[in-house]
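Predict the 3D structure for this chain.
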Amino acid sequence: MTKIPFGPTYEEMLHPSKIEPSIRKKALKAKDNELDPLNLFNITWRKEDNTIHKIVLPKALTGVDANIVVLLGKDFPSGSHKVGPAYSTLIEGAVDGTIVPGKHRILGPSTGNFGIGVSYICNLMHYDATVIMPDNMSKERYTRIKQYGADLELTPGSESDVILTLEKTFEMAKDENNVSLAQFELLPNYRFHRYVTGHSLIEAVKGIGNSRIACFTSAPGSAGTLGAGDQIKKAFPEAKIAALEPYECPTLSEGGRGQHRIEGIGDKMCTLIHNVLNTDFIAKIKDEQSVRGLKIIEEGQDVLVENGLSEEEAKSLQGLFGISSICNILGAIKMAKFLKLGPEDNIVTVATDGPDRYGSVLKDVDKRYLEVEDFVLDRWFKDHFIGAVPKDVLDTRVESEKARLFRQKESDWLKFGYSRDYLNQMKEMAFWDDEYNKVFTYNERIKAMREES
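Done. Predicted structure below.
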């Protein structure tokens, strides 16, 4: 039987300092060779000195008193934090024996970053892979997936048509030789983010403001990242969780349908692993504002300086964010105003990836507008960052809204073979806590598997 390349436990992804020192040293050196399997041990929110990859946004950028703290995902192997759930889902399947090397082809339903992560992880762990995704995403995503060796299976449409991707994956998974790393429905995604991302966010605010988290904002693609909010609420019960979605495709807030440009979020469903019990608000963000925001940060350095940022601050922002990251930041600004947060309060969010996979999208901005000079960027900056208004926010803490979201989940998932009884279990926090606690069992099982490799 083919041996499974080993990798980190959940605990080691949260605290890489706990990795055996010689392996940790080799893994850090392996960053120079992206396809060295030791890079599995670099799946973490932490830098080499074990501090968190983060930035506290300049208040001249946000225009709010609250501190907005952003975890940075661009330095994960493959360039996005989505590689964490891809690895977690694969390693749990390997430990459980449901994924067998040399036998199974891995399927990765995605709109981009998770597919890149699946292709990358399968390259390192020696599995064949097929990524299933819409055919109208940024070309950089397709290039990166092929670069890591996965095949592509494209379905019609864009981000808002991901249901077609799920249907295609569902059909392909009927072949016993195919196993789907179904990010929208498999709970290793939730476990990774609740344990690794959640605890990292909690640590990230230490020494900032009151060292507590008042609000966590994240746009759900798979909704895995929102799982971090469950751990945040354990540490700070007063914290509010805001799910962000495209104004042009408000599925969670309105059950709506439409197309939008924020790649990686707003997939026209209430995903199976979205714990709506802990979603306090749903805020809508316009897709064009997110695209323009990235344009400003990447190409509007003079505009930022003219609006109060230092040259050092403006330069430090370049290369950190992708489009969905800007959406998360705009959502944090909106919620800071909506909740009337002050200088001691902290809002946290995540930057899923960097700008490297959006070059074609930024070029498209130039094509779509007659002028993209500094005076235009200046107007966009004042409108979208400083001028963000606290509207289009839905309070989902009331029972009627929870019931509506559960009905949406039933509509989306009963057709994929999940029972109503299983879905009803998700209406109790005990279900999510039990799933989270499996982290500790998998820690031991991954260690045991590693020793046998």
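The chain is about 45% helix and 10% strand.
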